[in-house]
Amino acid sequence: MIHDRIEAGQLLGKKLLAFNIIDPIVLAVPRGGVIVGHEVAKILRCKLDIVISKKITPPENPEYGIGAITYDGTLYKGENWQRYAKWANFDDELTKKKKEVKRRLEEYRGNTDYNLDKKTVIVVDDGIATGSTVFAILNWLVNQKTGKILLVIPVIPADTYEIIERKVSSVIVLYIPTEFSAVGQFYEQFDQVSDQEVKEILTMYKK
């Protein structure tokens, strides 16, 4: 059991020290991932930035992700994508979610410009369930011509881990449960993180 996101980041950061990474950048997934990523970045003494994607969901089930999209339209298509891609309003859903990602990026960081060429990128979230949003982010990173990509996650279910480890250089994780219902079950404290908390942390890295 992890006490909170701060402890998760500290534990993961210490694990990363063994990798002797030169000049990495932490890309955290808001909002909870920014708390974890901040601790990782402090330990590695590196820059923290954010990266966002948004789940694509059926209209009758807004909690069920069939895929995800980034600000530039990079997609992750889950196994049920084709079943829902025939909706009359499917393109509208993609456009809406793409705009929402861009709006959030501009709110948090001011723009959608990244320079990750040949950099070692450390993607951090506070946990993964199905992994749709992270899969979209990893697809996007392929187009950014990065160096190594490390995925740093406190908890990820075993079946998702088996798929995602093939897509990155390394996965650094605290828990890989075979029985999984929600990320929050592995934390003693898993409070909501506010936009203000995220902005305050990001401001520290703009100096």
What would you note in describing this structure?
- There is one protein chain.
- By secondary structure, the chain is α/β, with parallel strands linked by helices.
- The chain folds into 2 domains: about 5-50 and about 110-205, Rossmann fold, CATH 3.40.50.2020; about 55-105, 2-Layer Sandwich (Ybab, Chain: A), CATH 3.30.1310.20.
- The chain is built from 7 helices and 8 strands.
- A 5-stranded parallel sheet has the order 2-1-6-7-8.
- Strand 4 (about 65-70) and strand 5 form a beta hairpin.
- Helix 1 runs parallel beside helix 2 and helix 2 (about 30-45) runs parallel beside helix 7.
- The chain is globular and about 50 Å long.
- The chain starts with a helix and ends with a helix.
